[in-house]
């Protein structure tokens, strides 16, 4: 979700197939563990580089387009990768998934215990690294130019900004972060399958981002827990029609939130500050 926020919230690149890079990183880390080495940092690094390279190459092609065409190209790329993983069953395991993934202890000290303590710390560290990278990026002049491109790309071109090159660059960085997330997912679960390349995963990530609010650094840490809690509550209360309530929640956030839950919180805080100032004046 953090990597998706970078392209959607800051660069204005609308995509439905961002899970392609997550799945690419997941399979890369899994295949490396099965056929080469189970050292976790090597697998994570290779998956990040592969996903970043895929993002750079695909971005150079699909970012020539905009709007609905771009949306369909990202979705088509995801569907093609899913089918390619299914057909290459000799490498990926096909519909059975990639079995035999064995990850060595972290720093050759901490085992991947049954309770998931090591996995939790490892995942948290990866999320922290991703957050630092994204925060540094969006606070830099490069990140400011992305905001300008999102608001008015023609004006940015007029002042000499290399719009297309910067969009390709941010798309590749975002893909690399998604690949890292996929690698961490495979390594902590010791398994991966076609679900990592499914449209459901990409759609769920987009819903999480919309719930929290796109273009907010902390949205990736707020949207997923809200989505997962809402999913659990709705499915417990209404196991048959829980998707209806989830859809209503998403519609309400989009129609009335105007920037997601974080945007709603900002407006509530502004209202409180305004009333407090009025009280002081009175």
Report the radius of gyration as a whole number of Å.
Answer: 20 Å
Low-confidence stretches: none
Q: So what's the overall shape?
A: globular
Could you tell me the strand content as a percent range? under 5%
Q: How helix-rich are the residues, as a percent range?
A: over 70%
How many helices? The count is 13
**Biggest sheet, in brief?**
none
Query: Order of helices and strands, N to C?
Result: HHHHHHHHHHHHH
Q: What is the end-to-end distance?
A: 45 Å
Mean pLDDT value: 89
Look at the helices and sheets and give the structural class: mainly alpha
How many strand elements? 0
Counting copies of identical and different chains, the oligomeric state is: single chain
How would you describe this protein?
Helix 10 (199-212) crosses helix 11 (219-237) and helix 11 (219-237) packs antiparallel against helix 12 (242-257). Helix content is 75%, strand content 0%. It is built from 13 helices and no strands. It has 282 residues and is mainly α.
Briefly summarize what is shown.
With 282 residues, the protein is an all-alpha fold. It is built from 13 helices and no strands.
Any chance you could write out the topology, listing elements then pairs?
Layout: H1 2-10, H2 19-35, H3 40-62, H4 67-87, H5 89-92, H6 117-138, H7 141-151, H8 153-158, H9 163-189, H10 199-212, H11 219-237, H12 242-257, H13 260-281
